[in-house]
Amino acid sequence: MSLVLDPAAQDLLFREARTANTFTDEPVTDEQVQAIYDLVKFGPTAFNQSPLRVVLVRSAEGRERLVQHMAEGNRPKTATAPLVAILAADNEFHEELPALLPHFPQAKDMFFAERPVRESAAGLNAALQAAYFIIGVRAAGLAAGPMTGYDAAGIQKEFLDDDHTPLMVVNIGKPGEDAWFPRSPRLSYDEVIKTV
Ligand SMILES: Cc1cc2nc3c(=O)[nH]c(=O)nc-3n(C[C@H](O)[C@H](O)[C@H](O)COP(=O)(O)O)c2cc1C
């Protein structure tokens, strides 16, 4: 009653959406990824800093290099998902800031001249964007399998550079057989929300 979003969309994005552990071999196209990005890019970030960067691992050779850096239990699904994306935070996002925040271009030097400040801001805001990305994958009728079980330094060296910190690797595709672990409980409203 309180939600204005269509109940079917609520189910698609949250109630019935699950973290997939197996996938069919139906491909995920660049057009789908573009549609997902063009939707979720509107999710908010501080100062509109938009620090998320994404590497789509499409080649067999790239996939092989990535799988080596995944934790043992994550390897089979990373090897077989139709598409795998490396989500990273750009710690030099301030270079784009004047273009992204045209009404306040001074923010770049006023707030983000120091690298540790940028790393902290990029970590938080790229994580927000990663969450939007996962929901966007679901909005495309696909399932996402986010993972942080990996050798971060190895992935950074292999696919990124010193200015880009890996946040998570996301398997993307249509769920396959036995795709789900049992649904785990969530904390209740009263356990999480206090009013003062
Ligand atoms: C940031 C993040 C990291 C995760 N890392 C892993 C991982 O390394 N391996 C794995 O099997 N699942 C991983 N998961 C999956 C979670 O355990 C799963 O999303 C959660 O239990 C909810 O499952 P459900 O969507 O099926 O309810 C990760 C999820 C997130 C959001």
Structure, explained:
The chain is α+β, with helices and mostly antiparallel strands. It has a single domain, classed as NADH Oxidase. Helix content is 41%, strand content 15%. It contains nine helices and four strands. Strands 1-2-4-3 form a four-stranded antiparallel sheet. Helix 1 crosses helix 7 and helix 2 crosses helix 7. It is globular. The mean pLDDT is 98. Bound molecules: flavin mononucleotide (FMN). Flavin mononucleotide (FMN) binds next to strand 3.
Entry summary:
The chain has 196 residues and is α+β, with helices and mostly antiparallel strands. It has helices spanning 7-15, 30-40, 60-68, 75-80, 97-100, 107-111, 115-139, 152-159, 189-192, and strands at 52-57, 83-90, 143-147, 164-173. α1 (7-15) crosses α7 and α2 (30-40) crosses α7 (115-139).
Which term fits the overall shape?
Answer: globular
**CATH class categorisation:** Alpha Beta
Provide the residue-averaged pLDDT. 98
What is the gyration radius calculated from CA atoms? 18 Å
Q: Quickly give the structural class.
A: alpha+beta
CATH architecture level-2 label: 3-Layer(aba) Sandwich
Helix content: 40-55%
CATH topology tier name: NADH Oxidase
CATH superfamily: NADH Oxidase
Strand order of the largest sheet: 1-2-4-3
The number of E-state strands comes to 4
Bound molecules: flavin mononucleotide
Give start-end ranges of low-pLDDT stretches: none
Number of domains: 1
Largest sheet geometry: 4 strands, antiparallel
> What is the first-to-last residue Cα distance?
25 Å
Helix count, DSSP H or I runs of 4 or more residues: 9
